[in-house]
Design goal:
Mean pLDDT: 78
Structural class: alpha/beta
Low-confidence stretches: 1-24, 149-157, 214-221
CATH architecture of the largest domain: 3-Layer(aba) Sandwich
Largest sheet: 7 strands, mixed
Strand content: 15-25%
CATH superfamily of the largest domain: Response regulator
CATH topology of the largest domain: Rossmann fold
Oligomer: single chain
Radius of gyration: 20 Å
Number of strands: 13
Length: 263
């Protein structure tokens, strides 16, 4: 396995591919302007069997995302030029690749902004390499499960779900509200499907997280609320009179059929 600088000089960019490479568990794109951090993490993740591509700025990362297929992107927030949030926004226009964002600040505002922008997970740089590896593996497992479900749908078409102006096509993993497409992240889609399939029944945060993600969340982790808030906004729910998703105090969330709720 070798490192090679991009001959076009488009940013600090390195590709790691050779014909003699052993089979890897996944192909990860690491985006961070800290060369020392990238070197350390590349060595650690390569030792776990991953194939790693490295970009030290946003422009290089977006170029790599166009030119190669990645199983997951580890994206730093604070970078010169195009920052991580901007890279994520541009990436989400063309790709649903799982994205794990890293930040040196770790404020709640950054967490909310990252998740709302389409990140699948968010981790402070103070976390250990072992925790980063665990988060990466959890996202890859979730992605594999979703890919398997899509493969099965190609043979047996799942029934389209239509509820009060909401339309979910499980085969295409597409969502529409009143005929207009709605772009959801992987975890938002999982939360919505879980709620719809248990229509009229309260789902606790723990139940929703277990069905929408294989990552084990702590009881105090409120990120499900962030995802639900983003999901509501995308579905056009009014915070004062929810059309589809209601909050049940101290219990969780409930999906309602607007047509059945109408007087």
């Amino acid at each position: 396995m070798t490192l090679a600088r991009d001959p076009r000089g488009a940013g600090e960019l390195y590709m790691i591919f050779t014909n003699s490479d052993p089979p890897a568990t996944a192909r990860l794109l690491l985006v961070d302007d800290d060369s020392k951090f990238c070197k350390l993490m590349t060595g650690y993740l390569e030792a776990q069997g991953f194939v790693i591509g490295v970009a030290h700025d946003g422009a290089a990362a977006l170029q790599l995302a166009k030119e190669a297929t990645w199983d997951l992107v580890v994206l730093d927030v604070m970078m010169p030029g195009i920052n991580g949030f901007e890279v994520l926004n541009l990436l989400r226009r063309t790709s649903a690749v799982p994205v794990l964002m890293l930040t040196g600040r770790g404020t709640e505002n950054d967490l909310v902004r990252g998740l709302n922008a389409g990140a699948d997970d968010y981790l402070p740089k103070t976390a250990s390499a072992r925790e980063l590896l665990a988060r990466i593996n959890a996202l890859l497992r979730r992605s594999a499960v979703q890919a398997s479900a899509q493969g099965k749908a190609a043979d047996v078409r799942a029934d389209t779900i239509e509820v009060g102006g909401l339309r979910i096509d499980p085969e295409a993993r597409s969502v529409e509200v009143d005929g207009k497409p709605v772009a959801l992240t992987a975890i938002e889609y999982g939360l919505l499907v879980s709620l719809v399939r248990h229509k009229g029944r309260v789902r606790s945060r723990d139940q929703l997280l277990q069905e929408a993600s294989d990552r084990r969340f702590e009881n105090f982790d409120r990120s499900v609320d962030v995802h639900i808030a983003s999901l509501r906004r995308k579905l056009g729910d009014d915070s004062r009179s929810a059309r589809f998703i209601r909050t049940v105090r101290a219990a969780g969330y409930l999906f309602v059929d607007p047509e059945q709720e109408a007087p």
